[in-house]
């Protein structure tokens, strides 16, 4: 088997492939284990052309490399380029093994090819416990600041549309629909965690930034899953439309298992570009705790605010909180200190999307008629994103780095190891009112 071309390719150019793609290219030869040797070569040629792989190609030089790659990809009717991502000098494509071999051997300036693997939504009285209500009562509500919820979509819930519609824009990368909707329910819950105004509950269930605008970006399907390329497309869209829709914050309650050998995968690259463009990015740490080194990607990025989950015991009192057992722990790649901080993430009541997948399969989680209870770092992340919006309302000139500094400096140390709590427990009031970082 060592003489087969794809095995030789992965051995000679191992640095050009992520671990997942290397394994899949080698596994291409499994059917040959019980096949007579004289049939190996013709079957190998057939397998290399038949099996298709969804990938993300990163180039050393975007356009010169892409132009050359186009020639090889267009030469095979079974292969195609799907999306281009200029912010990260990359594109997504569907390729067979034969074309991958040509791209590598013909020097198409390819830096790395990643398997376009699955990314999922991270699920397993929050606002008062992070002291956002006190700010809201003083008129600091996130007004004039917009949060992009990159998730399963957004249902036009009354808490987002009454008395005025705060769903600023909606982009659907799954079904290409124009009007806001959410066939899973996760994204709607997250939007409410950040910016629900309590319209349907007499202000009982409110997010941390109840007057912020919401931009719904649907990148996950009705089952709460998507792919690396779809997420990258959604974040690239936020970068491209930052000025048009005044996108100030991105909330990402999704992720995939991180490859410790690669701390700069496509998700990390695109969230870093969003950060550099001036957008604060809050990312869920993941729900793979309590083991160490379980932070998912893109939460391993050193730039973004990576959020773990605290169990606030459903009380406003801050003396009885405990770290949620499911909350992923660091350290992350290169001994990076992650998560950055903790926010409430257990039994969080937020907006219900009627008729969605979660609504139909978890009826016991319904709260009254308009709300739904979920747990996970998915919930903690938009709560933090809402607090970032409060900071930007008061300090609109702040860069993402300054917002992050405020969040970390004001977090309350809970006496836990840094790889568990980061800087500590989110405190909105201190983050907005402190003067330490001015």
UniProtKB/TrEMBL annotation:
Residues 142-424 form the Peptidase S8/S53 domain. This is S8 family peptidase. It holds the Pfam family Peptidase_S8. InterPro entries: Peptidase_S8/S53_dom (IPR000209), Peptidase_S8/S53_dom_sf (IPR036852), Peptidase_S8_Asp-AS (IPR023827), Peptidase_S8_His-AS (IPR022398), Peptidase_S8_Ser-AS (IPR023828), Peptidase_S8_subtilisin-like (IPR050131), Peptidase_S8_subtilisin-rel (IPR015500). The active site is at residues 151, 186, 378. Keywords: Hydrolase, Protease, Serine protease. Belongs to the peptidase S8 family. It comes from the Bacteria. It comes from Halobacillus shinanisalinarum.
């Amino acid at each position: 088997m060592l003489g087969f071309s794809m095995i030789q390719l992965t051995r000679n150019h191992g640095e050009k492939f992520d671990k997942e793609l290397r394994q899949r290219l080698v596994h291409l030869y499994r059917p040959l284990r019980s096949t007579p040797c004289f049939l190996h070569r013709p079957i190998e040629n057939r397998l290399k052309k038949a099996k298709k792989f969804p990938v993300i190609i990163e180039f050393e030089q975007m356009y010169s490399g892409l132009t050359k790659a186009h020639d090889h990809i267009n030469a095979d009717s079974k292969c195609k380029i799907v999306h281009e991502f200029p912010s990260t000098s990359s594109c997504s494509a569907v390729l067979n093994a034969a074309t991958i071999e040509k791209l590598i051997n013909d020097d198409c300036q390819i830096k790395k090819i990643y398997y376009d693997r699955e990314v999922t939504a991270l699920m397993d009285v929050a606002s008062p416990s992070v002291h956002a209500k006190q700010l809201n009562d003083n008129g600091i509500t996130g007004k004039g600041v917009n949060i992009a919820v990159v998730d399963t979509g957004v249902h036009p819930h009354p808490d987002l549309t009454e008395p005025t519609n705060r769903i600023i824009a909606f982009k659907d990368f799954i079904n290409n629909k124009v009007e806001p909707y959410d066939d899973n329910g996760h994204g709607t819950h997250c939007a409410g965690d950040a910016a629900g105004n309590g319209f349907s509950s007499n202000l009982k269930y409110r997010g941390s930034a109840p007057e912020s605008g919401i931009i719904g970006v649907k990148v996950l399907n009705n089952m709460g899953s998507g792919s690396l390329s779809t997420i990258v497309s959604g974040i690239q869209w936020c970068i491209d439309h930052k000025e048009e829709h005044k996108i100030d914050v991105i909330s990402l309650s999704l992720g995939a298992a991180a490859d410790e050998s690669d701390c700069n995968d496509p998700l990390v690259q695109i969230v870093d570009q969003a950060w550099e463009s001036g957008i604060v990015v809050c990312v869920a740490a993941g729900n793979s705790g309590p083991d160490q080194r379980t932070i998912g990607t893109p939460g391993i990025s050193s730039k973004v605010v990576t959020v773990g989950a605290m169990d606030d015991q459903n009380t406003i009192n801050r003396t009885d909180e405990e770290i949620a057992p499911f909350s992923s722990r660091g350290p992350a790649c290169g001994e990076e200190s992650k998560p950055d901080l903790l926010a409430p993430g257990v039994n969080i009541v937020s907006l219900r999307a009627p008729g969605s997948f979660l609504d139909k399969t978890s009826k016991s989680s319904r709260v009254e008629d308009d709300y739904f209870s979920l747990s996970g770092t998915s919930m903690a992340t938009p709560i933090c994103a809402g607090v970032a919006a409060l900071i930007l309302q008061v300090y609109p000139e702040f860069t993402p780095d300054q917002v992050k500094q405020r969040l970390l400096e004001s977090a309350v140390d809970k006496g836990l190891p840094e790889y568990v709590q980061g800087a500590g427990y989110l405190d909105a009031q201190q983050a907005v009112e402190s003067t330490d970082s001015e």
